[in-house]
Specification:
Chain lengths: 295, 97
Amino acid sequence: MYCVGNPAAESPVLVTANYKLSFDSLRKELSDIDAWILVADTRGINVWCAAGKGTFSAEETSYQVLKTRLAEIVSHRELILPQFAATGVASHKLNKKCGFKGIFGPLRAADIKKFLSKGRKADETMRSVTFTLGERLVLVPVEISLIWKPFFLVTLAIFILSGINPDIYSFGAAWTRGLAAAGSTVLAILAGAMLTPLLLPWIPGRQFWLKGLQIGALAGLASLPFFSDGNNFTASISLLLWITATASFMAMNFTGATPFTSLSGVEKEMRHGLPVQIAGVFMALVLWIAAPFIG
Amino acid sequence: MKNFRYIDDTAILQLNVEACIGCGNCVTVCPHRIFELQDKKAKIIDYNACMECGACSTNCPVDAIYVNPDDGCGCAAYIINSWLSKIRGKQFNVCSC
């Protein structure tokens, strides 16, 4: 339980998650009004994800209401919940569990002040989720930071494989070919986890693996003069396949971060995309190993 | 969100109009604004915008709404893990997000 300003017994109670950014943005938006903030313990997870996984629930909210003895602090019996909490918090169960009535505020903390001043009313815009360029941009570093470990392991494996050649093994080839492959991997990640999310509404099609495939193929084609050994056609095709398949997978994985893809839809597109991506990676691998032998 | 549309005809969302008492909770909580109250009953006006977040069914006091109950986020890593665990017949809770 926290205060913003100088809250009194009749000041509103706003509920949020104990995710630092959620709490900070709520406190910032409330800078010049008096209110109580009740924090549900969501183990550091944001409002929507915690609600989705059930940690931000009517039970948890009621537990905090009773634990903080909110009924002795405020004179009213109303909790204002973020609309995104609705996935986990059944507002009609709150009254029975803790004696407080739950009402859903707007989706975004930025609209709270307007919501309070308009008599607890949110218009359609305040209740509609958006996915602006800025909102997509902040997700990019998250996506990229989550793949360092697989990236490192894959790159290591590629360096080792790159040395196989007609003279049995060449450390020089491992280094030069490995660098080209590693550069291609970085490009694939940028194409799938950065360019695709940023250009999302303008890339044709609806399935993410297909969006990533297009951007990956374009990035791969554009990179050919830089990464491929111009004399080795097989290696060039291998890198092109690798970039396209990896970008497609990265783009498909981005569905988890968007506010508009249904789990059923993602499963459906994965049944189409994953076999293509696996085939692409497999062919890329075979061609990469074969390239020094057949040129 | 009209500029972002996902795959049509895949979301699992069912509304039992018979059971609906017209409280309007689903209309309030849906982040994609797919419900509307018509003649004191909820009506789905934009089914293909559903992302299965489950806010409507959680907040329906009479259980008139059914949404895909799988509570995982829609990331590929989660789905691959859930498929693998189904094959192996094991429980899992591996998701990096």
